[in-house]
Design a protein that fits this description.
There is one protein chain. By secondary structure, the chain is α/β, with parallel strands linked by helices. It folds into two domains: about 190 residues, Vaccinia Virus protein VP39 (Rossmann fold, 3-Layer(aba) Sandwich), CATH 3.40.50.150; about 70 residues, rRNA adenine dimethylase, C-terminal domain (Helicase, Ruva Protein, domain 3, Orthogonal Bundle), CATH 1.10.8. The protein is about 40% helix and about 20% strand. The chain is built from twelve helices and nine strands. Strands 4-3-2-5-6-9-7 form a seven-stranded mixed sheet. Strands 1-8 form a two-stranded antiparallel ribbon. It is elongated and about 65 Å long. The structure holds S-adenosylmethionine (SAM). S-adenosylmethionine (SAM) binds next to strand 1 and strand 3. Its EC number is 2.1.1.-.
């Protein structure tokens, strides 16, 4: 049966007198065919425990809850959560946590399915990747998704692209136009599958941070200028001069993730011996 998700959503908002708050990224999905796609990519199984960040009024939560063992839904907005609680009264397999997903330790989950609030895209992605799970079906602002998968030498290549290159496998699944949301945001969205790979170490993270503060400079200058991000004790020039000079001559935005890893491994060894 074809569901008119737009009418259903408008009716719920009207019934509860809810005004959506753009600052909380409250753009609710109203395109049922896109919702079905998300659910199908999630490949839901009876024994799945699904984490959902920002369930809103339950557009994804309710159909997910009817197919899996458990849903953990974390919603920051108390008023929205009250509506969701009411809508979920016939479901005893949803743990609704009211709070900021960035500040809460996640209970066990094996998959995450979320239409994310875009403001927290970066910190929530890194937080998620601290956990072990099978995969996530996640909606991001299109520009952010492009930065996630950007290649060296391109405009979008960033600290995020380098870290995620090692931490996750990212596949673009679909593009979602702004008209699929109520109210329509100013940007289009991208649906991705994110599959965790390896965890990265602290030195690598700090090296990326130092380098990408000066994306267009040569690696040598970037490292010296932001060496405080890596170590406060060692003398920057003394340390940096011990790194492979071929790498130091390259501009930061042209370094491949493997080259950045090499720099960070060399730095780690040198600092340990110092
Ligand atoms: C883009 S809407 C998605 C709503 C619904 N899942 C959908 O697909 O229509 C994002 C939701 O995240 C909530 N939110 C915003 N910041 C949050 C945070 N830090 N932690 C948890 N929820 C948050 C918003 O209140 C909003 O309900």
């Amino acid at each position: 049966m074809k569901v008119n998700l737009a009418t259903e959503t408008k009716n719920i908002l009207k019934k509860y007198g809810l005004h959506l708050n753009k600052r909380l990224g409250q753009h609710y999905l109203i395109d049922d065919s896109k919702r079905q796609k998300i659910l199908s990519y999630a490949d839901l199984k009876d024994d799945d425990v699904i984490l959902e960040i920002g369930p809103g009024i339950g557009t994804l939560t309710i159909p997910i809850a009817s197919r899996v063992e458990k849903v953990i839904a974390i919603e920051k907005d108390k008023k929205v959560a009250t509506i969701l609680k009411e809508r979920l009264k016939d479901y005893n397999n949803v743990e609704l946590i009211i709070g900021d997903a960035l500040k809460i330790d996640f209970p066990y989950f094996n998959k995450i399915v979320s239409n994310l609030p875009y403001k927290i895209s970066s910190p929530i992605t890194f937080k998620l990747l601290e956990y072990d799970f099978k995969f996530g079906i996640l909606m991001y602002q299109r520009e952010f998704a492009e930065r996630m998968i950007a290649k060296p030498g391109t405009r979008d290549y960033s600290r995020l692209s380098v870290a995620l290159y090692f931490m996750a496998n990212i596949e673009i699944l679909d593009y979602i136009p702004r008209s699929a949301f109520l109210p329509p945001p100013k940007v289009d969205s991208t649906l991705i599958r994110l599959t965790p790979r390896e965890k990265i170490n602290g030195t690598f993270e700090r090296t990326c941070r130092a380098l990408f503060q000066h994306k267009k400079k040569k690696a040598r200058n970037a490292l010296i200028e932001s060496f405080h991000e890596i170590s406060k004790e060692a003398d920057p020039r003394e340390i940096v001069d011990l790194i492979d000079p071929g790498l130091l001559e390259k501009r930061v935005f042209t370094l491949t993730p493997e080259e950045i890893l090499k720099i960070s491994n060399e730095l780690k060894k040198i600092i340990q011996c110092h």
